[in-house]
Predict the structure.
Amino acid sequence: MKRAAGVLFLTLGLIFIFSSEAWSIPAFARKYSMSCKVCHNPFPKLKPYGDEFAGNGYVIKDKETPRYNLDTGDNTLSLLRELPIAIRFDGYLSFDNAHNQRFDFSAPFVIKLMSGGEISKNISYYLYFIFTEGGEIAGLEDAFIMFNNLFKTDLDLYVGQFQVSDPLFKRELRLTYEDYRIYGVKVGQARADLTYDRGVMLTYGLPTGTDLTLEIVNGMGLDPVDDFETFDADKYKNFLV
């Protein structure tokens, strides 16, 4: 291991919602007047309740939030009263025991802008942009629209850019400094792995508590468009069940 000792000394989640009373209060916690610990413990690990909340399009069933949307008098129009935005700052103090025997202040190591929430009934979104990761601009990672409870069933549809590994385990919720490298492994000459990709994901919750998932993705990761303005460079798609 390159860094034999690492101490996380600063992880801040600063939530900015454009309201005079909303400074540094987490968007979802403020929306429902609850502590962040209801869904996370320890941060950023999700509790079962938090996992259910995320799977329901960041909505708590049967709990009204009348101040979350503007009253326009039009039942077909849904406008957010405030835009939920968060900034996460990660920094580390580390000691490289294997090579140069030095301490290193790695701060900021990651700065990311996040936003997510309910757009309309049963329609939600989530995205985040990494301003810096290890000194480089990483760009847009998660960015998807979620259609919840399709056909009045427990069928959900995600469309956009997401982590293929999310149904298995969300990498962003790990408590370790180093990543789970197996998720980034590519077999042979394949360009696909279990990190980010573009496509669609269907999830269905059975009454037994078992979740079924089907993913169809390009298999190209986050590569930019080619000369033909397309993300997928071949005619094949990748399936995950």
